[in-house]
TrEMBL record:
This is Outer membrane protein beta-barrel domain-containing protein. The lineage of its organism: Bacteria, Pseudomonadati, Bacteroidota, Flavobacteriia, Flavobacteriales. It comes from the Bacteria. Residues 1-22 form the signal peptide. Keywords: Signal.
């Protein structure tokens, strides 16, 4: 009889674990790895210019998220990005002057926090529509190294050379994950800060 009870208990625990993994967001103890491509716009700070805005960045992002609560996850992201832009000088000698096209390369590193509200709605409604789907919103903040290569200088008295600086980003984001298979899915994310828009593949670990 004890063996039968033990078998039933183990079967129930196995069923519970299976259902937890089937959820779009598994809550505390869950882990997610995202690999994606996107477009972003980051501020880069250099010693010869107080602020420079980077345009048309293409980026690769690797992101890890760890569930710390039934509906909350924290994590980090790292990436690599390449882009082009223009250095603009704004001052008393040349107000509104723009020029000096450049290409740049950046290595952003940041932290993320997500609230998975679709799982909360699913639980409150007593429905199972969040089994394969996860919708979340959160904040991101980070920095990193920026490399600038100026292709053409001003012909006037204002000059900017190639340089090494620092990235700076902060902002909100929202995303959606869909898991056609238990541990592999796709995701899309939009916002401001670490990226305007990004998408790719997500793995439950």
């Amino acid at each position: 009889m004890k063996k039968v009870k033990m078998i039933i208990l183990l079967a129930a625990l196995g069923l519970f674990a299976s259902n937890s993994q089937a959820q779009g967001f598994g809550g505390s103890g869950s882990k997610y790895l995202q690999l994606g491509l996107g477009i972003n716009n980051h501020y880069s700070i250099y010693s010869d210019y107080d602020r420079m805005y980077n345009n048309n960045f293409g980026a690769f992002n690797l992101q890890m998220e760890f569930g710390i609560h039934k509906y909350v996850g924290l994590g980090f992201m790292i990436g690599a990005q390449v882009g082009i832009g223009n250095i603009g000088y704004y001052g008393p000698y040349a107000p509104g002057l723009t020029g000096s096209p450049y290409w740049s390369f950046g290595l952003p590193v940041g932290f993320i926090g997500n609230f998975h509200f679709l799982q909360l709605i699913s639980d409150k409604a007593g429905k199972s529509f969040a089994d394969k789907l996860d919708v979340y919103a959160g904040l991101n903040i980070g920095s990193g190294i920026a490399f600038r290569n100026v292709r053409k200088k001003y012909k006037d008295d204002v000059f900017y050379d190639s340089n090494v600086g620092a990235l700076l980003f902060f902002g909100p984001h929202a995303g959606i994950r869909f898991f056609p298979k238990e541990n592999i899915g796709i995701y899309a994310e939009a916002g401001y800060g670490k990226s305007y828009i990004t998408g790719g593949v997500v793995f439950k670990l």
